[in-house]
Write the C-alpha cells for this entry.
Amino acid sequence: MTPRRPPKPLSARTERRVDERSLARLAQDRVRLAKLSPGGAPDRPITVESSSLVELRASALPCPRCTGEPRVDEHTAHSVDGELLRAARTSCKQCGFARVVWFRIEQRLVN
Ligand SMILES: [Zn+2]
C-alpha cells in the first residue's frame, strides 16, 4: 500500500508572490481611499486656520502606498469655484509616490 502524499505545500516563492500581490492590492485600496479622504480632492479640502499649517499637515499624512513619510515639494494657491484653496504637492521619501493634498484656509475672525 502506498501512503497518500499530503498536498504539496506552497513553495516559499509562491507564498511570497501571493503576499506581494495582496500587498499591491492593499496599496491600491489605500491610494483609492486617500483620494476619497479629506484633502484628497479640491471638493473635500482639509480646513486649516493658517497657510503655515498646510505643509505641516500635508507632511503628517502618511504615504497611501507605503505609509512612508512624504515631503512637500510645492505649495500653491488655486481658485476653485470662486474659493481660494491651497494645494500641497507631496512625494513620498520612501517610494516616491506623488499626490496632491487640498486645503481650505479658514481664518478665525477676531473681533
Ligand atoms: Zn510611499
Q: What stands out?
A: Helices lie at 12-36, 52-60.
